[in-house]
Amino acid sequence: MQNGWETIIGLEIHAQLNTGSKIFCGCSTRFGDEPNQNTCPVCLGLPGALPVLNRQVIELAARAALALGLQINSSSIFARKNYFYPDLPKGYQISQYDQPFSANGVLEIMTALRDDAGRPLEWRPKKIMITRLHLEEDAGKNVHEGLPDVDRFSYIDLNRAGTPLAEIVTEPDFRTSWEAYDYVNHVRRALQWVGASEADMEKGNLRCEANVSVRRIGDKNFGTKVELKNLNSVRFMQRGIEFEVARQIGVLESGGSLRQETRLWDERAMETRVMRSKEEAHDYRYFPEPDLPPLIVSREFVDEVLASMPELPDARRQRFMQQYDLSFADASQFTSERSLADYFETAAETSGNPKVAANWIRSELLRELEAAGMAASSSPVAAKELGLLVRMIDEEKISGKQGKDVLVEMFKSGKSAAAIVEEQGLVQVSDTAEIDGLIDQVLAGNPKQVEGYRSGKETLFGFFVGQVMKASAGKANPKIVNERLRQKLTG
Ligand SMILES: [Zn+2]
Questions:
Q1: Is 76 left (phi over 0), alpha (psi -120 to 50) or beta?
Q2: Model's pTM, two decimal places?
Q3: Span from the CA of 24 to the centroid of ligand 1 (angstroms)
């Protein structure tokens, strides 16, 4: 909220469903192939070619819808959305209109108030209404760069034409750019979590558009809305919305009026530019696709998909807090990715001490992974191995300090903790008789310091600990050394 103004934001996300073949033909969806290699009469839009729905699209769309709390309609209708564009050879896109695949979702997300640098200050839940998730085919791509004669010609690559998309539309429920940011991250993680989409904005398989308007606080009517495009990362989207809100308030406060239009976010210039005016609403002349029957989804099918779904991130975060006594922050971090959640859970169980395992993952392992630019799923230290290392430390077979060095070595060499401990002879000495022997040697060898300590120079205690540790070649259990030393010096 800014000086008496309220921001209203609605979001549309296009997520590419993670199928091997296209939505209405058998062509591959592989990215990066030779232009127009993955095409056939159906996706080239040749006359007489007929679409056939890919069953895997329905499974993945169902997973996506269920992960976002949407209801799946028992019957939905594909419709033709008519418009002309060179990357759309049929002259229409097969989409869904008044009877979408799924609708009416209430999604609870966690969103944070943030400081000026974008650091979260306080997390709180917020409910977002998802209007619909419908299915459609993607268009091809116009190519304007990378070829020698693009100053004279335009090229078209139809490999992407017919790739399955789920379009996810919300109600205008967001009041700040950060709420939009937290929502998109939530959706992205949910889609990845259930395997519905790679949901990678950089690769373009998750695209986002924001409808942004402002109104004076207390106004019942919505202001003129602007559609923002070209938001190539979640952070760009957040910045684009911030800019657009400030621009709209500036125009209105100086007595101007806004036009309904589509604007592009220019990340380099940090501003939005007009792409096209939307004063006349497009008439796409939607009508039911005559070449496809209604899509019927049975209750049994939905139940089957539900049964095959993994435990969802929010439920898992909640369980981590209860079962393993983790803080909200730790549980949130460990459920930020499914592979990390799996990693934590395996390590926690093997270690026998989930809280300590959590600390080791958070403070030691994640630092190594981050430095190497790796995800938990490709960690050279397997979750079980980390759990065994934590167990050794917890059982005082090696010290915590030794454990840190062992982990670094495990990370480098891929060897097990047990193998490294044995190779380096790292076993911690906790045997009191052996430690007593070392203490006696040290005390006998330093009579002046003993006298000094006993006459009140307590700072000498650290000196004795150091000498005993040195005498044990660093292997003595420091806790026991401390206990025994104190006894012997005062006794
Ligand atoms: Zn095809």
A1: beta
A2: 0.84
A3: 7
